[in-house]
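step=encode ok
step=design start
structure_in=
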């Protein structure tokens, strides 16, 4: 289908140009296909490559993946996966928010552990002296404030001096991890044990479960945070300013956006959400923290944030997939006689294939194909021979 337009040149002659007009349905289908290729295909390829690796190690990949399903979904195991989703979703929300502005908050481990140490240190006494709802609210606010405060130094250096936030957030992360260890060994140490850990929160003082399930209400808080972040990014002027800054900081200055203020608020919001994740994990699942414990959730969540195209709602199914993988993967690795590090190999493969497909997707945006020229020629030749 073409659209004919008539224009008048400087000599007075009329010229007719036929401009191609693609149906809206075709454009929509193309966008859907592009999202599937960039978001779903890397996961599928990683699972296939992981299966090949398992075969090379003498393991049956179908049995291994079946055990992941059994340990992560079947027979009520999905509730364990849902419990693990709570901190994952909160961290994903914080990273999605700040990555929209093309700002890299890589200090999530320090922010998380520092908040977790504070929650573990204050929770046993706080839950015994104030009503439960007030104790939980204070603990969430305390952890969120700790995570947010730990981003101030990188935020100020980035906003005022343009310092690379990758370096500053990583350095603050190292300091935060060590400071959390000092707090656990010092003022928050449980005097009833020689082990370097905090006092254990009683089971009846943990986050209450959702009625009819074993899943604590921290998951509901995580979903609420996801919806709030999605609304802020898509329905507010603040979210629009974040997107403009992420696309072109110079254009943002031209539009009169206060970059230092936006950088500071995005850092604070991201750190606050990471701090909330620590509360959901400690008061909802573990009940205490010990030195040397560093789950490094953010390292494995980042690939899924980008697979979701920095969309707060789209990240939910990816986080659900990772929760099942991390929950059932422990059982699968144990039964296969493999270390749990094999799960990190799968995450690394997802990141690898995501990078490759993203590169090919950028080629396609420039008018080229997803497939390299040599492979396309080989396919055309094969069709011709057939």
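sequence_out=
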């Amino acid at each position: 289908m073409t659209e004919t337009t008539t224009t008048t040149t400087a000599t007075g002659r009329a010229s007719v140009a036929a401009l191609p007009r693609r149906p809206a349905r075709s454009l929509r289908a193309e966008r859907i296909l592009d999202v599937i290729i960039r978001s779903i295909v890397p996961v599928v390829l990683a699972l296939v490559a992981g299966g090949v690796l398992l075969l090379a190690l003498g393991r049956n990949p179908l049995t291994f993946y079946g055990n992941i399903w059994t340990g992560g979904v079947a027979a009520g195991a999905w509730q364990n996966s849902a419990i693990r989703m709570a901190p994952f979703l909160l961290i994903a929300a914080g990273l999605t928010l700040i990555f929209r502005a093309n700002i890299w908050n890589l200090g999530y481990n320090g922010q998380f552990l520092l908040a977790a140490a504070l929650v573990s240190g204050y929770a046993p006494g706080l839950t015994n002296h104030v009503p439960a709802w007030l104790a939980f609210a204070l603990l969430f606010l305390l952890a969120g404030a700790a995570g947010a405060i730990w981003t101030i130094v990188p935020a100020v250096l980035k906003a005022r001096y343009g310092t690379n936030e990758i370096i500053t957030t990583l350095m603050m992360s190292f300091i935060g991890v060590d400071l959390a260890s000092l707090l656990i060994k010092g003022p928050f140490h449980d005097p009833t044990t020689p082990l370097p850990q905090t006092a254990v929160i009683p089971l009846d003082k943990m986050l209450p479960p959702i009625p009819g399930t074993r899943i604590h209400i921290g998951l509901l808080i995580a979903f609420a945070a996801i919806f709030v972040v999605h609304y802020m990014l898509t329905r507010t002027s603040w979210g629009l300013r974040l997107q403009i800054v992420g696309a072109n900081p110079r254009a943002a200055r031209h539009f009169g956006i206060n970059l230092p203020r936006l950088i500071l608020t995005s850092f604070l919001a991201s750190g606050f959400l990471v701090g909330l994740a620590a509360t959901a994990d400690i008061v909802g699942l573990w009940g205490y923290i010990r030195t040397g414990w560093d789950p490094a959730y953010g390292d494995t969540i980042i690939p899924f944030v980008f697979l979701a195209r920095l969309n707060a709602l789209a990240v939910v199914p990816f986080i659900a997939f990772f929760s099942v993988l991390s929950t059932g993967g422990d059982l699968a690795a144990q039964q296969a006689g493999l270390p749990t590090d094999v799960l990190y190999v799968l995450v690394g493969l997802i990141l690898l294939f995501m990078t490759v497909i993203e590169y090919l997707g950028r080629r396609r945006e420039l008018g080229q194909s997803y497939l390299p020229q040599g492979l396309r020629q080989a396919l055309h030749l094969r069709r011709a021979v057939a």
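step=design ok
step=annotate ok -> The radius of gyration is 25 Å.
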